[in-house]
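REQUEST
  id: r-88c1
  op: predict_structure
  target: Glutamine cyclotransferase
  payload:
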Amino acid sequence: MPPTNLFISAPAPTPPLYLRRPIATAAAALLIVIILVAAANPYAPWHTNSTPTALLHRPVSSAPAARTSFYTFDVIREYPHDPYAFTQGILYGGNDTLFESTGLYHRSSVRKVDLKTGKVLVQHEMEGRMFGEGLTLLNDKLFQVVWLKNEGFIYDRHNFSKHESFTHKMRDGWGLATDGKVLFGSDGTSRLYQLDPKSIQVMKAVTVKYQDNEVPYLNELEYVNGEVWANVWQTDCIARVSHEDGIVVGWIFLHGLRQHLWNSGNTEIDVLNGIAWDEANQRLFVTGKLWPKLYEIKLRPVDGPQDGSVEKLCPKASFYR
Ligand SMILES: *[C@@H]1O[C@H](CO)[C@@H](O)[C@H](O)[C@H]1NC(C)=O
Ligand SMILES: *[C@@H]1O[C@H](CO)[C@@H](O)[C@H](O)[C@H]1NC(C)=O
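RESPONSE
  id: r-88c1
  status: 200
  body:
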């Protein structure tokens, strides 16, 4: 399938669900909407005729190389993805299969999924009180962390019934990845941890920064070509992080994906979350929570903002449910 141009104008922010329900005090609601619209002003660049869209179409200039690179994307292929999967961790497991961890209470699971059809091949349902989060695969073992708990699980990749638990010392369990030696972990802060896979002790932790500003809400992680790539919660951006020092060496702008889904009527989707890397075939996959699609994408370098103000390009998607 040829690359698809998914750049389209951003959807207008939708008020939260409770505002869409009939309410007695219409005047109060109107006032809240006015406040919300006013509050949405910082998001203005994302709307029609947005600067980011124009910016992302600009060819790379021959400006002096900065340490940060910026990327947009081309869609190579799209695959079905379970729209009820609240994707919290995903990775490529070889042979056109994915391993996925899903969240939400009473709906959390660990799954083996067929890439091409999106079909769940094997599923382990977690206890109802467990909210699944990051997942990674090391030596045939799947490591999974859980939201709001210091408890995690290790599964046999060939038989999810064989599992044991561990405890970790991160503040919370959000994302996991591995370089084949250590586990990289995120806990919703700007900290990127390195855990020993045997003892689960924290061996090292760095603070992820872009231009001296901390980058909080590090979420789903993937190890790609020596870097740790992190979804930044509630944004359409992936930070490419040097795990040595926590410096963001690149930003990937993916807002076109969520906008495309939204504009196709998928208004129940949640945020972008989920990066899987097929190292052998150099294939990059991304998806999101409750997204009906998983995309294979290729990155394309673009110029970054002149003033480097990535905050404007990676705003929080809090208006989107
Ligand atoms: C790859 O997956 C297919 C389909 O599930 C299966 O028939 C085949 O045995 C698998 N091959 C390997 C090497 O695991
Ligand atoms: C999976 O592991 C469980 C627990 O050890 C065992 O009872 C079961 O037979 C295994 N299933 C397969 C298909 O190997």
